[in-house]
Amino acid sequence: MSTGWRPGIPAPTHDDLNSCVQCGLCLPHCPTYRVTGLETSSPRGRIAAMRAVQAGQAPVAGDFTRFTDECLACRACEAACPSSVPFGRLIEATRIQTEAARGAGGRWVRRAGIDGVIGHRRLTRLMGWVLAIVQGLRLDRLLPHHLRMATPRVTVRGLRTPLPASSGEGPVAMLLTGCVMDIAFRPVHRATIDALVRGGFRAVVPTRSGCCGALAAHAGEVGSARRLARERITDFEGASAIVVDSAGCSAHMRTYGHLLADDPQWADRAAAVAATVRDAVEIDAPPGRPCDQRVAVHDACHHLHAQGIGPEVRRTLRAAGATPVDLGDGGRCCGAGGIYNVLQPGMASTLGEQKARAIIATGAPVVAVANPGCAIQIHNHLRAIGSDVEVRHPLEIID
Prior knowledge:
Layout: H1 14-18, H2 31-36, H3 43-54, H4 63-69, H5 76-80, H6 87-106, H7 108-118, H8 121-136, H9 145-149, H10 156-160, E1 166-167, E2 172-175, H11 180-184, H12 186-198, E3 202-204, H13 214-218, H14 222-236, E4 241-244, H15 247-253, H16 256-259, H17 267-275, E5 277-279, E6 294-297, H18 301-304, H19 311-319, E7 323-326, H20 340-343, H21 345-362, E8 366-368, H22 372-384, E9 390-392, H23 394-398
Parallel strand pairs: 2-3, 2-4, 4-5, 6-7, 6-8, 8-9
Antiparallel strand pairs: 1-3
Helix pairs in contact: 4-6, 21-22
């Protein structure tokens, strides 16, 4: 059968595409559809476009790439779907195809950022130092607005804060330090280590730990994603638990078995590592201090939709005496989406402002955010509209 997919490259499967019955129950849960009202901005519309390419009725390039680029891959549709359509798998396979269709010239932003810098620990650290100096001199004001809104706050003090190689006693729990988390959110790592120790674990920070490959996978750079997965598997084999304090990273590492399923040398090892991954908010540990304030809760998409994590965040806060406050926006995506806010700044800005205003409406002085991309997006949009609501990881709030 003739098909529009490029040969020799992973693509959405016939069975996955046909699992969608086009009922439309996903539409009100899709953040881009809620903004535009266009069928092409909905999961149902995107699957219809994928089917057209599958049937050879449309090319991968052109309008199809534009429709799929606008998708946040938040997987809200997946959680709402009565037919259990694996939309996350569909969009990631589609992006492998669209990235190949772009050619080298159209891929340089993703390749330079994801594979050239974030995929290498030393270059990521160097980027952090450059960013800290630029921000310290306030030169970041010269950046385009959408890049400033997508940039984390990095400080020299934060970069110089060491993490203990080993703390506590008990079963070994190894911490993923990651890429962006390691340069901009080290206090979260310290809070996670403290929680592990309180929970009876021996917290270990691997010396080589780096990017898990989530950003590469979401952007369709499957080669980079597989390389980084193999590196992290080598780092973490043998741990009783692999603890991850970034929602997007924990969700991705739990898919390592699928990502390397066709590699006989790595398939079993990948599945074994994936089975030991635990998100930090799943740690059963007593709070480090009481917290008697109201805390707004932003549910990261890769918590709520990809992993079914939501009650855990609220339980963690309540254990410390805090009062969790839901935002009332149905868990709508904040618009960060990995590097989405760099590549799709218009839609990202609309969703970011909506999220910031939903947080302000709760009246809570702090918002719990368990994903670095969300934290950056929400912090910057809160400040842009003049709010001083603090953005903190749930474990930071109770540490």
